[in-house]
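Need residues for this backbone.
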């Protein structure tokens, strides 16, 4: 039986924290309990700055706990393009920042004694084309790269070329994040879970974080480390695009490849060894698509299984399967720093390389709070507009969002009424002329929602593979009962008038 969870969250013991039940005052309020939030909070607390961290759900359980666990400066075949687009200085800064982050994560884990399956090894990007330009660009930027024989990877596939980065890092991300949280609270920091922040506003010389329950945290500084800044903060919802990837953990009939690999071409296939699965354990991630843009997400998972079956001539049953969401920017560089028109510090657009990019971001955020310069702040500038290509891409993306608004709910309705919604079934239904979203859980309870995103009113799509309501406009995701899973939305879905079935 396949477990619907990342292998990391299924094999980690995460500390638990109480919800915020009283107003607080502190030096810094950090919103978000993923890698960026926890690393930033730990840095600042260790510098003697008082920090309160607020997490809407449980720490480490969203994107950061659903990564591949690769900490590498090899972000696919990107460096020839970055060099051409941004010039040597910026491309070199991006490369150096991420390579240093690999060593920093290793050093943090060892210094804190975090048992998170740390190991070093090579990482490969492979292609059916010629990657010589990529290898030369990466070497020119100071990265540990060289053109390699694709046979080195140990994958039973045909590839024309490959680029190897040596001495990259693997870890168990959920255990690493749990270690960061314990170190942070051990240094005097405070974490409050199940405490969703709905507003961050200027308050005198500082910032006020207001929560869903009405509680307040007043601080001198605020950091929004929430995958995408929530609401309309900084306009980042219109400057990024949401993307969902899928993952499986399997046991092969033979020993699994020990290297990290990723394909240069779509469809993306990213692999790494799975220590918990023994010598035959393998993790495969890919089947990317825009959040809310895939009608059948079960097919995305199946495509990964089919790929494994084809390569190894076998039939595998995944032990775990999961998905993760992240955001990409038009110019392929993250946004980190002060949000335009706001005192809030932000970090977003990690392009699915959040373990390295996010570690860089945490250092920039720490230094901004402390009033120190940081070598990487310019290339990650949160206020930049970007080049002509970036502006054109933003226009194109927002035209697409406009079409999504206009489309409304002209989508396939599963049926007229809710009487016959099967267990495990979800989607859009017609209820006396009104479109409602419905899902019947494994216990038989029917959950109904108004399938309209509470961020800016886009229509939602049912994600059957993950049992979530997803927004293709800006990437908000909701549980079957309407609870917010990922922003920029901060409010749960509204409930329709319920006329049939049990109320969810």
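Answer:
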């Amino acid at each position: 039986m396949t477990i619907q969870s990342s292998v990391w969250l299924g094999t980690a013991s995460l500390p638990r924290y109480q919800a915020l039940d009283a107003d607080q005052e502190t030096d810094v309020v950090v919103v978000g309990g993923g890698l960026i939030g926890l690393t930033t909070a730990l840095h600042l607390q260790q510098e003697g700055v008082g920090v309160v961290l607020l997490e809407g759900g449980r720490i480490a359980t969203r994107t950061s706990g659903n990564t591949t666990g690769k900490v590498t400066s090899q972000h696919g075949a990107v460096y020839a393009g970055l060099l051409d687009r941004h010039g040597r200085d910026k491309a070199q800064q991006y490369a150096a920042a991420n390579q240093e982050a690999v060593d920093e994560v290793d050093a943090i884990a060892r210094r804190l004694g975090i048992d998170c399956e740390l190991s070093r090894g090579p990482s490969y990007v492979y292609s059916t084309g010629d990657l010589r330009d990529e290898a030369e660009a990466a070497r020119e930027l100071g990265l540990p790269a060289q053109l390699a024989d694709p046979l080195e990877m140990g994958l039973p596939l045909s590839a024309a070329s490959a680029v190897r980065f040596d001495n990259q890092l693997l870890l168990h991300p959920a255990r690493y994040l749990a270690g960061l949280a314990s170190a942070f609270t051990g240094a005097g920091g405070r974490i409050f879970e199940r405490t969703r922040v709905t507003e961050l506003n200027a308050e005198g010389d500082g910032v006020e974080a207001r929560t869903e329950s009405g509680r307040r945290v007043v601080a001198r500084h605020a950091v929004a480390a929430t995958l995408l800044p929530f609401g309309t903060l900084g306009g980042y919802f219109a400057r990024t695009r949401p993307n969902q990837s899928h993952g499986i953990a399997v046991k092969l009939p033979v020993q699994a490849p020990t290297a990290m690999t990723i394909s240069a071409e779509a469809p993306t296939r990213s692999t790494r060894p799975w220590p918990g699965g023994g010598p035959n354990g393998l993790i495969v991630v890919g089947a990317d698509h825009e959040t809310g843009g895939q009608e059948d997400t079960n097919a995305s998972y199946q495509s990964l299984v089919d790929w494994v079956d084809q390569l190894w001539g076998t039939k595998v049953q995944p032990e775990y399967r999961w998905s993760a969401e992240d955001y990409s920017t038009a110019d392929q560089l993250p946004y980190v720093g002060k949000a335009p028109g706001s005192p809030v510090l932000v970090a977003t657009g990690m392009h699915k390389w959040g373990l390295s990019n996010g570690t860089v971001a945490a250092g920039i955020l720490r230094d901004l709070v402390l009033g120190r310069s940081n070598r990487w702040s310019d290339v990650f500038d949160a206020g930049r507009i970007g080049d002509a290509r970036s502006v054109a891409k933003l226009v194109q993306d927002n035209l697409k969002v406009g079409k999504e608004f206009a489309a409304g709910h002209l989508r396939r309705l599963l049926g007229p009424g809710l009487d016959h919604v099967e267990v495990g079934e979800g989607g859009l239904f017609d209820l006396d002329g009104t479109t409602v979203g419905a899902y019947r859980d494994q216990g038989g309870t029917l959950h109904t929602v108004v399938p309209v995103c509470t961020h800016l009113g886009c229509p939602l799509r049912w994600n059957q593979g993950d049992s979530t309501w997803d927004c293709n406009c800006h990437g908000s995701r909701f549980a079957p009962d309407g609870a917010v899973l990922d922003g920029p939305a901060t409010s749960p879905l509204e409930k329709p008038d319920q006329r049939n079935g049990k109320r969810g």
